[in-house]
Amino acid sequence: MSDRIEKRIELRAPVSRVWRALTDYREFGAWFRVDLSGPFEPGREAIGHITWPGYEHVVWRAVVQVMEPQRLFSFSWHPYAIEPGVDYSAEPPTLVEFHLEAHGEDTVLTLVESGFERIPASRRAEAFRMNDDGWSIQLENIRRHVEDSVMTDGHAG
């Protein structure tokens, strides 16, 4: 098993549109399916509730690390931390990075989640497997979110 997940997707939307979908907490919540309590801010914890059916009991927590406009958005979190009543705060988090790169009028979005080697062995393989599958779904979610809005709005803004 690798210690990192890496996925790339080309989105038919400009970097500015993808950046907004990643970093505006309401837009992030719409495609990621989490109801966040407030804006993302580097160094601060973002908290919300998952709205994905079957996971509504999960409190979503992530600490925003970097927000380099239209280039890099990253946060750390406890992967696949879904068991009610379990305190994951003592575990080392993984780092999730969204790298944006213009490709003509489109955007190449690269997702990297690293640090799985530090997750306790008892949950490492399952956390990796679930996040690997989950990120494939989430990249399709953001693709639909940004591409539908570009086609609906008739502009990228």
Automatic annotation (TrEMBL):
Its protein name is: Activator of Hsp90 ATPase homologue 1/2-like C-terminal domain-containing protein
Which stretches make up the Activator of Hsp90 ATPase homologue 1/2-like C-terminal domain? 12-147
Give the family from UniProt: Belongs to the AHA1 family.
What are the TM regions of this chain, as residue ranges? none
- In its UniProt entry, the species of origin is given as Rhodanobacter denitrificans
